[in-house]
Design a protein that fits this description.
Blueprint: E1 4-10, H1 19-28, E2 31-37, H2 39-44, H3 49-56, E3 78-84, H4 86-94, H5 100-111, E4 115-119, H6 123-126, H7 129-140, E5 144-145, H8 167-177
Parallel strand pairs: 1-2, 1-3, 3-4, 4-5
Helix pairs in contact: 4-5, 4-7
């Protein structure tokens, strides 16, 4: 039986350096995992990209494919955006395709691909008024947002525990949503943990 395909899309928040843990856990749950990251997250993972590509069996993507070239990933059954920074959460809610991760997340909403978003922000970022509005917009668009009790709970700035980021909650939600999508694939060209201290450029 062919494994279900999970797109794990990570942003430049500290837990992204532990993305290999999430990949391994997802694989143990029967997923074929494709890893995508924002440009800054890719910089953080630069020395480990060959290892991550061997682990997943797919290229790690951080940019749109060139016009006219075939897609290098299989079609997605579920998309998980984690860790999702303030920048990416707001970009997706406002329809601003600042990165491949944000752009594909917005496409997933439009194509009704089952979508899980688990933020990683510190408590200072979490108090920005746009953040709450953006989370609600994503929920209204059909995303399963894991924030607060039963999801990611922010810590004060500088007190994050990225090694404790609750990947398992996002993967459990992905399992629940599996098989619920309609059009899939393609592209356009509560625990604490984490900190979400990355700046606006991802």
């Amino acid at each position: 039986m062919k494994n279900r395909v999970l797109y794990l899309l990570g942003c430049a928040a500290p837990p992204v350096v532990y993305a290999d843990r999430a990949v391994r856990e997802a694989q143990a749950r029967g997923w074929d995992v494709c890893l995508g990251v924002t440009p800054t997250a890719r910089d953080w993972l630069e020395g480990r990209l060959p290892e991550l590509e061997r682990l997943t069996g797919h290229p790690v993507r951080s940019a749109y494919r060139a016009l006219g070239t075939p897609d290098v990933w299989p079609r997605a059954d579920v998309v998980v955006v984690a860790p999702a920074t303030l920048n990416t959460v707001n970009a997706c809610a406002l329809g601003i395709a600042t990165t491949f991760v944000a752009g594909f997340t917005m496409e997933a909403i439009g194509k009704r691909i089952p979508l899980v978003v688990m933020p990683c922000v510190n408590s200072a970022y979490a108090r920005h008024p746009q953040f709450g509005r953006s989370l609600e917009t994503l929920r209204e668009a059909g995303a399963r947002v894991l924030y607060g009790p039963g999801g990611f709970v922010p810590n004060p700035p500088g007190q994050g525990r990225p090694e404790e980021y609750p990947w398992r909650l996002a993967l459990a939600a992905a399992g629940q949503l599996a098989g619920a999508g309609a059009d899939t694939g393609g592209d356009t060209g509560g625990d604490g943990g984490g900190d979400g201290t990355a700046g606006p450029a991802e």
